[in-house]
Specification:
With about 325 residues, the chain is an alpha/beta fold. The protein contains 13 helices and seven strands. A seven-stranded parallel sheet has the order 3-2-4-1-5-6-7, with helices on both faces. β5, α8 and β6 form a beta-alpha-beta unit. Bound molecules: guanosine-5'-triphosphate and magnesium ion.
Length: about 325
Amino acid sequence: MSGAELGARLRERDLTAAPAALNLLENRLRRDEIAALLAEVAPARLGGEAPAHVVGVTGPPGAGKSTLLSALTRAWRSGGRTVGVLAVDPTSKRSGGALLGDRARIDADPADRGLFIRSTAAGERLGGLAPATRAAAQALAAAFDVVVIETVGVGQSETEVAEAADTVAVVVQPGSGDVLQFLKAGIMEVPDVLVVTKSDLGQVAMRARRDLQSALRALGERDVPVVAVSSLPPPSGIDDLVAALDAHRDRLDLAVVRTRARRLGALADFVAEHGERGLRALGGRRTAERWLSEQEPGLDEPALLRALEARID
Ligand SMILES: Nc1nc2c(ncn2[C@@H]2O[C@H](COP(=O)(O)OP(=O)(O)OP(=O)(O)O)[C@@H](O)[C@H]2O)c(=O)[nH]1
Ligand SMILES: [Mg+2]
């Protein structure tokens, strides 16, 4: 099936098109077909931004992201929302992956047609998003109610997720100080929602929550919620997290956020394709960003990439 047909099916919210669409988007050799797919789900064709809530979930290895997503997905599904999950799996020789022997997979009902999960290997990447993951999020956002991008890491990696997602949740497990230190040191951008996992561990989880709250207060970030959850049955705090994510989304100017995502995504695609040399040919990152900010807001990412490339020809 062609990219345009798959895009049209997603636009009509046909969830069964998701697997084939993802196969196409992951095939870098089919750039024109990918562009055709994304054009079908671009704001111009949809008559506005894609309706999904795109949620980034990121955090250190073993923090409990996958287990949390099992519980979150269940909550969203029982609330009647369809969910697409893009899990960027760090399992590779390079990054070591699975630092803990006991990593969990997202646990889901295989017969549920309202839920789609795709894991992709992060490969050589340590943090950051593959162009295919951004494209997949844009495509699925036309069809699903919620689209999740799950990545491993802390520091640099959540910046790219923040560019691609409407709402970013950083997941922290009790007793691990790295997120707290990165926040305090300003190394890490303040996420939209902080999640302390494993609250069934008791005191240590409550302390982690308090420490994060006071670090946020010190940074003047009073509006960032810190939600404590336990994802193991019986789960707790999951409904609070759903509410915190929804509240953030309700405050957003979606057109602004999505336009920025497409522009920064196009620039990232450009750098992936043409390297730092290409970026210099554009006059540097700042100049390229300024130029992008003057383009038509509704243009999809492949169209913006083509426009950038036309400038260096
Ligand atoms: N006690 C407790 N353990 C949990 C909870 N959530 C996750 N775990 C455990 O923490 C370990 C890691 O959980 P995962 O969900 O695999 O964590 P992850 O962040 O996805 O890990 P990576 O994919 O390796 O980055 C597993 O042994 C889980 O069973 C929780 O709420 N309470
Ligand atoms: Mg995981």
